[in-house]
C-alpha cells in the first residue's frame, strides 16, 4: 500500500487536512483586518455612545518595569475591526448566547461567497435580497448546513480610509446590507450559521430606516445566527469549496469580540 496516498483509508480527515497544509495543496487565506488605533470603526451619531478604538498601552519594553520583556495592555471595544456579533449584542437576542457560549463547531463551516460588487459599485446602498441567494444556489448548489455566507461587495477597497469606509454624507452612512426579507430568511429559514461582510457592520449604513431597524442584527441575533464584519481578501475565495474559521475571544458576558477569520482553500 502506498503510504503517501491521500486515499489511504487509515488517514483521518484531519490528517488529510494537515498533509494538504504541509504540501501547500491547501492555502490559508487571512480574511482579517489588522488591528491598530487606525482600524476604521463604527461611528454612532449623537446621542448614542461609541466604543473606544483599539490601542496598545506599553507596560514595559525591556526596561526598568520589565528588563527582559516587552508587554502591553490592550484597550478596545468589543465590536472593533474584524469582529463577531454574539446574540446578546442585540435586544432581540438578549436571552441568547454571549460570545463565550457560542459552540466552536458553529464557528467553523463551509464558506459560500456571493459576489455583488458590481451592484454595490452602482449603488452603495445596495441591499442583498433572497433572490440573489436563490440565484447563487442555482449556480453553485444548495446552501449547506452550518455554512457562512460571505457577501463580497468590494467595500474592502475603501478600508484604508475611514471616511470612504463609513461613507457618511448629510443623510447618514451609505453602505450595503440586507433587505428585511433576506435577513429574516437567513435567520429563520436558512441552514447558515452566519454571514460575513466587508463593511463595518452586518447591516446597511442606512439600516436604521428599515422596518424593523437593523434587520440583520434584529433577526440573525434573535435566532442564534452570527455575523462577522470588516472582512478582507474575499476576492481570493472561490464561490464554494473553502472552509471558514471564525475565532473570537471567549469573553465571558461579551456581546462580541475582535476575531481572527481564516479560510482554507484548495491551492
Ligand atoms: Mn458588531
Task: Explain the overall architecture.
The protein has 2 domains: 1-26; 31-51 and 78-266, Glucose Oxidase, domain 1 (3-Layer(bba) Sandwich). The protein has a 7-stranded mixed β-barrel. It has a two-stranded antiparallel sheet with strand order 2-3. A two-stranded parallel ribbon has the order 6-10. The longest helix is centred in the middle third of the chain and has 11 residues, at 130-140. It contains 6 helices and 14 strands. The two termini are 26 Å apart. Helix 6 links the parallel strand 11 and strand 12. With 267 residues, it is of the alpha/beta class. The protein binds manganese (II) ion (MN). The site of manganese (II) ion has 5 residues, from strand 4. Manganese (II) ion (MN) binds at residues 79, 83, 85, 201, 256.
Ordered list of secondary-structure elements with their pairings:
Blueprint: H1 13-22, E1 26-30, E2 55-63, E3 66-75, E4 83-85, E5 108-115, H2 117-122, E6 127-128, H3 130-140, E7 148-152, H4 162-166, E8 168-169, E9 172-173, E10 177-178, H5 180-188, E11 194-197, H6 215-222, E12 226-228, E13 242-248, E14 256-266
Parallel strand pairs: 5-7, 6-10, 7-11, 11-12
Antiparallel strand pairs: 1-14, 2-3, 4-12, 4-14, 5-13, 8-9, 13-14
Helix pairs in contact: 5-6
The protein binds manganese (II) ion.
